[in-house]
Amino acid sequence: MAFAVRIVKLKDYLNKQKHEHSISDQILRSGTSIGANHREATFAESETDFVHKLSIAQKECNETLYWLELLKETNYIAQEQFEDLMKEAEEIMRMLTASIITVKKHIKK
Question: Left if phi > 0, otherwise alpha if psi is -120 to 50, otherwise beta: which for 31?
């Protein structure tokens, strides 16, 4: 949720300060989808469904990483802002990946 809030604020900054709308719309969708899919996974119908929903969150996180890189390369965000958001997104990615691996191992047993 905290990451999604930061993404919403980033979109607001990009729209108001940089007059950028296309990439900000994309990162808003992918960056807020991570938490939404994680939340949906908490009510998964099975372990397989849980993995599926976390995998969607993982893909959305990866897409968000791409948009952050693009924003940095096009100078829409400063290096410090980029590094801070990337660090958080990469940490989320590691947690999602670890959870998926753990549950997949449990399913195979």
Answer: alpha
Q: Which two tokens stand for residue 75?
A: 């100078």
Listed residue (25, 23, 2) closest to 77, CA to CA = 23
CA distances from 31 to 75, 86, 92 (A): 19, 12, 11
Query: What is the tally of helices (H) and strands (E) in the chain?
Result: 4, 0
Q: What is the mean pLDDT of residues 31-55?
A: 97
* Residue carrying structure tokens 């893909």: 59
Q: Does the pLDDT of residue 109 top 80, yes or no?
A: no
Query: Is the pLDDT confidence value at 96 over 90?
Result: yes
Look up residue 60 and give its DSSP letter: H
